[in-house]
Amino acid sequence: MMNARWFCRGDIDGFFGLFVDNLLQLMLIAVFCTRFCGMPGALVYGKIMPGAALSILFGNIFYAWQARKLAMRTRRDDVTALPYGINTVSLIAYVFLIIMPIYLATKDASLAWRAGLFACLASAVLEAIGAFVGDWVRKHTPRAALLSTLAGIAITFISMGFVFQIFATPVLALLPMLLILFTYGSRLKLPLGLPGGFVAVVVGAIIAWVLKWCGLGYFHPLADPYHFRLYYPHTAFGDMLVFLRDGQGWKYFSVIFPMALFNVVGSLQNLESAEAAGDTYNTRSSLLVNALGSAVAACLGSPFPTTIYIGHPGWKAMGARWGYSILNGAVITVLCLIGGVTLVLKVVPMEAMIGILLWIGIIITAQAFAEVPRKHALAVALGLVPALASWALLLINTALAKAGTGLFDVAPKFGSDLFIYGIISLSQGFMLTSMVLASMMVFVVERQFVKAAGWMLAGSALSYFGLMHAYQLVPQAGVINNLRPGAAGDFALIYLVAAGILILLDVYRRKIAGKS
User: Fold this and answer.
1) Beta strands in 278-370 (DSSP E)
2) Is there a contact between 386 and 430 (Cβ–Cβ < 8 Å)?
3) Does an H or E element contain 78, and which?
4) CA of 77: how far to CAs of 311, 321, 384, 479, in Å?
5) What number of other Cβ atoms are within 10 A of residue 216's Cβ?
6) Is 280 helix (H, G, I), strand (E, B) or coil?
7) Pick from 4, 23, 477, 492: CA 20 to 30 A from residue 49's CA?
8) Do the beta carbons of residue 232 and residue 223 sit within 8 Å?
9) Do residues 358 and 163 make contact, with C-beta atoms less than 8 angstroms apart?
10) Residues of the chain whose pLDDT is less than 70?
């Protein structure tokens, strides 16, 4: 008889991991919106945070119910709910490619916020459409392609930046990270059944406060005083309509469409990751609720889409089931509605928590190699490359911004010292590029050259219309999308030629097979 309890001990570990991830996104929202987009605290904490919280709660409750339903149907007690929260990449893209440029041009933070709401709602509509073709994409895309793309994001955007932060302050952060690796890696039960993540966070907090009391300046709690008050959600549909009526929203469709596609593809990859770990969920309902979560966010004042998170195997390995999802949604909602997003960090340093994100990153990367046929490991490795390029571009952009310049001015100066245009080309639409190249490699390894040619044709079409490799360099924003026919025509032509070569290889293979 399966255990149908709503909560188990592993849900505490899962909660800490997912909570840290969601909390980090909310912190980024607070910092980016106030520092770069001129938004007052009343807008950020009074409208954006409540809307974000309720969109997170909405999805967490559904995915917890979905997991419990699967457990009851299959009579298993090891089912883990899909992790869910705000999409980090969409968050960054919407801030720096839509909201901030409008604020810099108009100095109107309210208008910039409305633009973000429109983008979020448009993304939700496109994601809902994607839900009806998701199953077809999933059936015709090799597992190696889906998992390698996910692994590329995991090891770069989720893990590496935080690893640097850990090793920049080892006295504060290294021991909590190692404790997470020790406990989660060995799966050893600690005394009293204490969750490894909880122990790591407590140890990190103790170290931080001891160092502070000793007069060592490693930990600097937030200085801003906290005043308790309730922030109630507000409907923001009228604000979106204002922005839609003046036609300004469509100017940013070149950002909105790729990010919506990114969400759909990313969610498909996360569903594939969950299935590889043993939990098979319905694609259409999962994607539709994902889209509805983004719509809830937009209609309640948050311009940031939600998504099915990377990391399901990590939470599963921790022993989390479905209660962790409910607990995460409830705690995040309470924190947002009382303006307490930054309150936790007045007590616990971020460095004590980010080791959990490293664990998630490495277990996803390991899964990409372990859960595919051995000969497909070549495709997984190839699929990692575009994400590495995108991450390299992020590092370059950050360094240039700190130096007071940008790629528009500096790119021509790199020359052959750094092939910057190659990095940019490979980074644009990197998730699609990863899927195309990895899928092609799977079918080449299997000598299914016609199917490999089909993926090269897909790469040609995506490049031609600007969804892969296409970009423009402009002042201030630097690299922006370039969605138009012929945008990356050189790549489109090469992929088309490659498809023809693969067809010839298939003819040759059949000829050789006929002689033997």
Assistant:
1) 306-308
2) yes
3) none
4) 19, 8, 33, 47
5) 12
6) coil
7) 477
8) no
9) yes
10) 1-4, 89, 138, 193, 222-225, 241-255, 258-259, 262, 345, 477, 516
Using CA atoms, how far residue 427 sits from 155, 253, 365, 391, 394, in Å, is: 15, 19, 19, 8, 9
Q: DSSP letter at 82? A: P
> What is the number of residues in the chain?
516
Q: In this structure, what token pair is assigned to residue 377?
A: 């490991």
Q: Six-digit token pair at 67?
A: 């997991």
- Which residues are within 8 A (CB) of 24 and not within 5 positions of it... i.e. 6 or more apart? 350, 354, 357
Identify which of 180, 33, 188, 191 has the alpha carbon closest to the alpha carbon of residue 116: 33
Q: pLDDT by residue (tens digit) across 42-87?
A: 899 899 999 999 999 999 999 999 999 999 998 888 899 999 998 7
Identify the three-state secondary structure at position 7: coil
- pLDDT on residue 331: 93
**Residue pair 336/218 in contact by the 8 Å Cβ criterion:** no
- The string of DSSP letters for 455-515 reads HHHHHHHHHHTTSSS--EEETTTEEE---STTTTHHHHHHHHHHHHHHHHHHHHHHHHHHH
Distance of CA 473 to the CA centre of its chain: 24
CB of 410 within 8 A of CB of 181? no
